[in-house]
């Protein structure tokens, strides 16, 4: 295996950071098309509490569902809190 130079390593790390930032932005803005485009079609996700997802499309479908549940839970918590005021 060939070693990479310090500069190549820094450039690779910056590419990884930029990809992470694009993924976070896509999730924050619920741009599911962009999020799916940032993953290989045969992407596989391994999550402790969920079954394995074997495609990017399957991951997006599950993320969309999770996002709706999180918003729903947040709204329920807010309503419960407002009842105490």
Rg (C-alpha, Å): 18 Å
Largest sheet: none
Q: Per CATH, what is the topology?
A: Nuclear Transport Factor 2, Chain: A
Reading off the top of the CATH hierarchy, the class is best stated as Alpha Beta
Mean pLDDT across all amino acids: 80
How many discrete structural domains? 1
For this entry, what is the oligomeric state of its chains? single chain
Task: Supply database-style keywords.
85 residues; 3 helices; single chain; 67% helix; mainly alpha; Nuclear Transport Factor 2, Chain: A
Structure description:
The protein is mainly alpha-helical and 85 residues long. The chain has one domain: Nuclear Transport Factor 2, Chain: A (Roll). Helix content is 67%, strand content 0%. The chain contains three helices and no strands. The longest helix is centred in the C-terminal third of the chain and has 28 residues. It is globular, with a radius of gyration of 18 Å.
What topology emerges from the helices and strands here?
Blueprint: H1 6-28, H2 32-37, H3 56-83
Provide a brief overview of the structure.
The protein is mainly alpha-helical. Helix content is 67%, strand content 0%.
